[in-house]
Amino acid sequence: MATTASTSMAATAVFMPCRLPTSAVTPRCSVLPNLPPPRVSTTPSFSASLKQISEPRRISLFQVKASSSEESSPPVDAGEIFSDLKEKWDALENKSTVILYGGGAIVAVWLSSIVVGAVNSVPLLPKILELVGLGYTGWFVYRYLLFKQSRKELATDIEALKKKIAGTE
């Protein structure tokens, strides 16, 4: 038994990149801990292990909020969604334009993912762009969000842009 343990440790030491100590202590260079042998048992041992856990040690990771059926929204029917979409599609006059814009958007997303992947593969460029983004974010917060007067100015600029896009200006 002792010889098999030392040979398995030696085999682990050969495969793992670590230095062996020069002392007489058996080296443990394994990254993974030694696992106990698998138990062939049924649910009674599982329920026994649950009984061993004390109540204060149990930590709930999820919190569930109970609500009455009056507060919750009614379930969404898939047929209703498809019928609404069909009505909206039938109401469109320029269907070819919508298809063209949708296809263009898909191609644009695909091309931008290729460009982002290429930029991400350049060694220092992602970190430089991250610094540029942080710098711009800091400037934007200082310029538009820090003071009350500049927040009002930003709100008026956004409203003017909304009117310009909507064509009501």
From TrEMBL:
InterPro entries: CAAD_dom, CURT1. It is found in: Membrane. Signal peptide: none annotated. Residues 84-167 form the Cyanobacterial aminoacyl-tRNA synthetase CAAD domain. The keyword Membrane applies. GO terms for cellular component: chloroplast thylakoid membrane. Pfam families: CAAD. Its main location: membrane. It is a multi-pass membrane protein. Keywords: Membrane, Transmembrane, Transmembrane helix. The chain crosses the membrane at residues 98-118, 124-142. This is Cyanobacterial aminoacyl-tRNA synthetase CAAD domain-containing protein. It comes from Rhododendron simsii (Sims's rhododendron).
